[in-house]
Design a protein that fits this description.
It is built from 8 helices and 9 strands. It is of the alpha/beta class. Strands 5-4-1-6-7-8-9 form a 7-stranded parallel sheet, sandwiched between helices. A two-stranded antiparallel ribbon has the order 2-3.
Length: about 300
């Protein structure tokens, strides 16, 4: 796993020269993941080369505000470039176009983070077949497209000087990270759409281990529990068609202290730390895993997991 230029599995966990696609970056978890990857020195200088941006691929609305995210990243990691790229994560053709654009610009692809989830309605009565289809598209079809199309791009190697300012890549490697929820393994979390599509997302990850055998690409899942995403109950879209995770305020502070091992809701930064771990060489022998980030709730009080 060594290279004349640099190793993808550095002992210090740095991601020098990596090209990353992160979806859902206008939402709290996705934004935190971009900031975390930047902290791993994605796009830093290495041996005199000025390297790599993080490419952010967000929701399909062209009005999403990438400027503030880019400013936040540049403030602390000036060598990391953020590129706003509006596209429909559940669209096969759009996914292929994004990958082509990445390869044409940089000659390589290293990390793909699926973080554009959809909560869906809270009950069966409120759920329509169209709602279920949208949740499956966002929560499991997008990871499927990543599994199907990103690995060939991640396997592409590039020699030094082939692309302007491109870091050489002499090994086939990559990491696909799917951000799901504890609903990937438990029933009754929010509503049926959320549970069914989250189970399917984890299914993509588990199927991916055999699919990716011999490719040098790893795939893993992150399953957050109660995460404080800055949504108050009074501001919640009760149909769940604009939210990614349930608001942590669904459970009182007293209930959190009683049922969660760490006695509080988590933060987007704490989910992002796990994504940074899975993107880096620190996790070089981990694939097909489901890393639960719920403060011990599902272990301590599995019967109280439904929100």
């Amino acid at each position: 796993m060594d290279s004349e230029h640099f190793s993808p599995y550095r002992a210090d966990g740095k991601l020098y020269g990596f090209i990353c696609v992160v979806t859902g970056t206008t939402r709290p978890v996705g934004k935190a993941i971009v900031l975390e990857l930047a902290a791993h020195d994605v796009g830093s200088s290495w041996r005199g080369l000025h390297l790599r941006p993080v490419m952010t691929a967000c929701d399909k609305s062209p009005n999403d505000n990438y400027d503030q995210l880019a400013a936040d990243v540049t403030k602390y990691n000036p060598n990391t470039k953020v590129i706003g790229y509006p596209f429909d994560v559940a669209n096969e053709e759009a996914t292929l176009v994004l990958i082509d654009d990445v390869l044409n610009a940089w000659g390589r692809l290293d990390i793909w983070v699926c973080s554009a989830g959809l909560l869906g309605p809270p009950s069966m009565e409120a759920t329509t077949p169209a709602d279920l289809q949208k949740c499956f598209e966002m929560n499991s079809m997008a990871p499927f497209f990543a599994l199907k199309y990103a690995p060939p791009a991640m396997a592409k190697t590039t020699s030094k000087g082939h692309y302007v300012n491109a870091a050489p890549k002499e090994e086939k490697y990559g990491s696909i990270i799917v951000v799901s929820s504890v609903a990937s393994t438990y029933g009754g979390c929010w509503g049926p759409c959320f549970t069914m599509s989250s189970h399917a997302a984890l299914g993509v990850v588990r199927a991916g281990v055999a699919v990716l055998k011999g490719s040098g690409v790893r795939i893993n899942c992150i399953s957050p529990g109660q995460i404080e995403v800055g949504v108050d109950l009074k501001d919640l879209d009760t149909r769940g068609m604009t939210s990614q995770l349930p608001p942590s305020s669904l459970q009182s502070a007293e209930s959190q202290r009683e049922n969660i091992g760490l006695e509080r809701a988590g933060s987007p930064k704490e989910v992002a730390k796990v994504a940074g771990f899975l993107a880096s060489g620190f996790s070089s022998y981990i694939t097909g895993a489901n890393l639960v980030v719920d403060g011990g709730l599902s272990t301590m009080s599995p019967l109280t997991v439904p929100l």
